[in-house]
Design goal:
alpha/beta, eight-stranded parallel β-barrel, TIM Barrel, Class-I_DAHP_synthase, single chain, 2 domains, 13 helices, 368 residues, 46% helix, transferase activity, 8 strands
Length: 368
């Protein structure tokens, strides 16, 4: 992976790193849903020590077309009203130049560049052009997949437009193995970037990494232990009624308890070393996956040698019959009952198909 070492000009007294070392805390609902919901949530968040920025989703870049897409421009009007009522600074995510223009028109204080925009140099050029000549604070979310060049490229384009009040957000990455996270944190990747550009503030979006309340504390504490400058949370006055991502939002009272636990490093019940244990298990699975691929490649070599001694495909006869008996024996084992049996059968069928046609290659048959 190649990454640019181009210097990035970052404001010394920017919005995303406190001089006293205290955490920058940004919180608010996943989506602005109504004026009342936004105001009541903001009023409760304002009472939490350290929270000075209200974030709310205005436009939701959804993978599926029928999902809730956000309220749009009217939500910016609500944000402006809440800002005047509470004195909190406001932030929202933008994915294109039009979003950025509208957000600035309604006085949003901080723009957060969507990870879907970070991966698109054309979108970043257009957003940077809109911001040129302003002193707008901007957070840049990591690209959906780990690509250091795209992340830094987005920052460099903003820098070239004169934007220096910059910060990065680690909201987690798409990965082949996500569990137990919604988005994998890739702490190693974040630390690599931190080492390359120590001048850049880095915030952790605990909500989008965790994806569920039970992981919010351990993810947040891990991020703080690794030296992030701030944390982003999703908070809703009634998460159960939220129109988007209810499982990763906290009531303001719950969020206050979590933040106090992070400050005091008092472990919340049931979360001791949870992230470390999960990361260790994830690494074990990675090692097993690599070993499995190596074993399958060795199996292919043996299968190809067998095919050299046979004139044609081995589709019927004693081998096929023996294979079926072997499969039946596997499925009768106590540890392959229930839902695992369908996985084992699919895997064994795929292996048998590859055994019949070894020249086709491992990748030719999908394993469920």
């Amino acid at each position: 992976m190649r990454a640019s070492r181009t210097p990035i000009n970052v404001a010394q007294q920017g919005s995303f790193r406190h001089a006293d070392g205290s955490l920058v805390l940004i919180a608010g609902p996943c989506s602005a849903e109504s004026e009342e919901q936004l105001l009541k949530t903001a009023q409760q968040l304002k009472s939490i020590q350290g929270i000075s920025v209200l974030r709310a989703g205005i436009w939701k870049s959804r993978t599926r077309p029928n999902s809730f897409k956000g309220v749009g421009t009217v939500g910016l009007q609500w944000l402006d009203m809440v800002k005047k009522e509470t004195g909190l600074r406001t932030a929202c995510e933008v994915a294109n130049a039009q979003h950025a223009e509208e957000a600035m028109k309604y006085g949003v204080d901080i723009l957060s560049i969507s990870g879907r925009a970070t991966v698109n140099p054309f979108a970043m050029e257009e957003i940077a052009a809109v911001l040129k000549g302003t002193n707008m604070p901007v957070l840049v979310n990591n690209p959906v997949y780990p690509d250091m060049g795209l992340w830094l490229g987005a920052l460099e384009r903003l820098n070239q437009a004169g934007i220096t009040d910059l910060g990065l957000v680690n909201r987690g990455f798409a990965a082949d193995e996500q569990y137990p996270y919604r988005n994998h944190p890739r702490w190693d990747y974040m630390l690599q970037l931190k080492d390359m550009h120590p001048e850049l503030p880095i915030l952790c979006d605990a909500a989008h990494i965790a994806g569920r309340r039970s992981l919010l504390y351990p993810v947040s504490q891990k991020a703080v232990d690794l030296g992030v400058d701030g944390l982003l949370f999703e908070s809703h006055m009634n998460p159960a009624a939220a129109l988007s991502s209810p499982q990763q939002q906290l009531m303001p009272q719950e969020l206050e308890l979590l933040i106090n636990a992070i400050r005091t490093k008092v472990k919340l019940e049931g979360t001791n070393h949870l992230v470390e244990q999960l990361d260790d298990l994830s690494q074990q699975m990675d090692s097993m996956d690599k070993a499995l691929v190596e074993l399958l490649l060795r199996r292919r070599e043996v299968s190809q040698k067998i095919s050299l001694h046979q004139m044609g495909d081995v589709q019927e006869g004693p081998q096929a019959s023996g294979w079926q008996k072997e499969l039946d024996a596997w499925l009768r084992r106590d540890d392959y009952t229930g839902k695992d049996s369908s996985f084992v059968k699919s895997l064994m069928d795929a292996l048998q198909q590859h055994r019949i046609s070894p020249q086709s290659g491992i990748g030719s048959t999908a394993v469920a």
